[in-house]
Amino acid sequence: MDKHITAAQYQARFCEGNSPKRNKFNAQRTEHAGRTYDSKKEARHAADNALLERAGEIISSIPQVSIPLFPPSSGLPLKKRTYRPDFLEVLEVFPDGTFRARLVDVKGMDTPESRLKREIVMERYKIEVQLR
Asked: CA separation (Å) from 94 to 47, 61, 89, 105, 126?
């Protein structure tokens, strides 16, 4: 016996936009303090940072800071020529306005592209990105 469905039923079931968008590596988007993070682990790290801020162990935690890797003239799309670690954690601010900070990437699964971008950040800016 053949099963038939209408075009409307097909679109409702299979077309883009009708099913919830899945995150890479099946991570679940999670909200913390009014902001949505890409994973539960990242949201937990944000919650930990909020506690560290209140305790005075870090000054600030800034999510998703864009760091240029290549100039716009490189011809690469913006996503490929920038690196966005999950957090920039400001540890100390000096009187001249400079600061000491660390970059943190919260990962459940690392990718070759992410490793390459971290290597470029290290080579270009002499900043090591910490993985959590």
From this structure: 26, 17, 15, 25, 19
Is-above-0.85 flag for pTM?
A: no
| Separation of alpha carbons 119 and 87, rounded Å | 17
Give CA separation, 59 vs 44, 62, 91, in Å: 18, 10, 6
Structure tokens at 25: 């590596």
User: What's the pLDDT tens digit per position in 87-98?
Assistant: 999 999 999 999
- How far lies 39's CA from each of 98, 122, 128, in Å? 31, 25, 22
Strands 87-93 and 82-83: unpaired
What is residue 83's three-state secondary structure? strand
